[in-house]
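Here is one chain, start to finish.
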Amino acid sequence: MVAERGTSMTSKPVTFMLADLGVTKTHSRPHVSDDNPYSESQFKTLKYRPEFLDRFGSIQDARAFCQVFFPWYNHEHHHRGIALLTPDMLHYGMAGAVIEQRQKVLDRAYARNPERFTHARPKHPPQPTAVWINPPTPMAEKKVELVLVAS
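Its structure:
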């Protein structure tokens, strides 16, 4: 679990609770404000679900909610950042076939009604090859190459 460096996350009671739950707590790297955007995005998705409660009646209620939410998030929710695929599709190598099938549907739609597509023929976004929190800059890549060569 990635946590902010606030007092609530560094307090002993929270540390003990996380240990009891088997959660490993880590903190963002110092001076890096965007270290955990994936977690933040997942929390936002969680909190904006219509069935998300303002307050759960018990820990069991919260766990029951999460047992439904996480399979949905990984197997059904189509993520904009990964070409409207699910993490499951990418993880299990289904993305290529899904994109190919979707492109066929787009091609048929274009063939039937080309006037609906005023800018260009529709094209499905490509399968992501990498997902980055901080994409490397060309200079950073060169520094990495130099380090690898020098080693």
